Amino acid sequence: MDALAPTAPVEHGPSLRQRLAARGFDAVTLLVIPAAIFSLLLFVYPFAFGFILSFEPKAGGDWLANYKRFFSDPFLYDTIGNTLRLAIPVTLLNLLLAVPIAFRVRLMRRQRLLTTILVLPITLGTVLVAEGLLNYLGPQGWFNRTLMTFGLISQPLKLVHNYWGVFASLVITGFPFTFLLTLSYVTGIDPALEQAAATLGASAWQRFRHVYLPLLMPGFAITFCLSFVQAFSVFPSAVLLGEPAGITRVISIAAATAAFEEYDYSMASAIAMIMGFVQLAIVVAVLASRGLFYRGPASGAKG
Q: Pfam families of this UniProt entry (predicted)?
């Protein structure tokens, strides 16, 4: 009789898949692994390798020799100031130009067409833009020849192979990126907020100052940081349109010189680390200051 008694069902514990899902490792999460491996190989490992290499001077000795050499040689550490004198004004100008244009474009019917035209320079690349400026703004370029033809100048203006040539190139190549980011933030704010302010008698400037600006400041801070990093890494424009041994000797040129002329990869790595830390300091300062303008949630944005 005991043999015919029903056996109790065997209770199985949760499967491996269920246990992983309970800890947040489901099929969707596992898709992140290839991206994480890619980031590790492409960004993290090279940074770690360069950071360690910067403390291994080519001539041996003091592990801080590369950094001491950089900050003791004006020809090297002046490149930080040269780069900032280009990157910060260019970033501010691009942002100041992008804001009113973005506000105007968002109200136009042919917004896509105009946006395409404005971002077209981003497809050209820095080298092609530099070559174009050399032909257009050079001593025998169209701009100078036109001015001389109409008798406005007696000799060509020096607009390339100096600070302004590099400045113009960075504005042309950086504006499309800044404009697209600014347009995305501007169009993300609910127009009802502006309409309500206008109903209460606020002028256009008051609506921008008290409604739009507080909501846009977090976006402006991120746009500034991304545009600044892009301008700070200037290299082709500084070589082709500037004075590589003078006022436009930026920090990237110093790193390239150490790596490919002196074959001192340790020193080049140290300069690259300094370059990264300077950018990081500016980005942290800008992101930390955005809370001074707006501390609440951006509840006026769509979505």
A: BPD_transp_1 (PF00528)
Query: CA 86 to CA 174: how far, in whole Å?
Result: 12
Residue 136 contacts residue 130 (beta carbons within 8 Å): no
Q: Are 86 and 167 in contact (CB under 8 A)?
A: yes
Buried b (16+ CB within 10 A) or exposed e, 180-207: bbbbebbbbbeeebbeebeeeebeeeeb
Q: Which residues of 214-247 are buried (b: 16+ CB within 10 A; e: fewer)?
A: ebbbbbbbbbbbbbbbbbbebebbbbbbbbbeeb
Three-state DSSP state, 301? strand
The pLDDT of residue 300 is: 42
Give me 181's structure tokens.
Answer: 């980011």
Domain boundaries, the chain: 15-53, 70-292
Question: What confidence tens digit (pLDDT) does each residue in 221-275 have?
Answer: 999 999 999 999 999 999 999 999 889 999 999 999 999 998 999 999 999 999 9
50 touches 269 (CB < 8 A): yes
Burial 70-101 (b: 16+ CB within 10 A, else e): beeeeebeebbebbbebbeebbebbbeebbeb
Task: Using CB atoms within 10 Å of the CB of residue 44, give its burial: 0 to 12 exposed, 13 to 18 middle, 19+ buried.
Answer: exposed
Helix residue ranges per DSSP H, the chain: 16-22, 27-30, 32-39, 45-53, 65-72, 74-105, 111-118, 126-137, 142-149, 163-186, 191-199, 204-207, 213-232, 236-240, 251-260, 265-289
Question: 292 with 220: CB under 8 angstroms?
Answer: no
- CATH superfamily to which 70-292 belongs: MetI-like (1.10.3720.10)
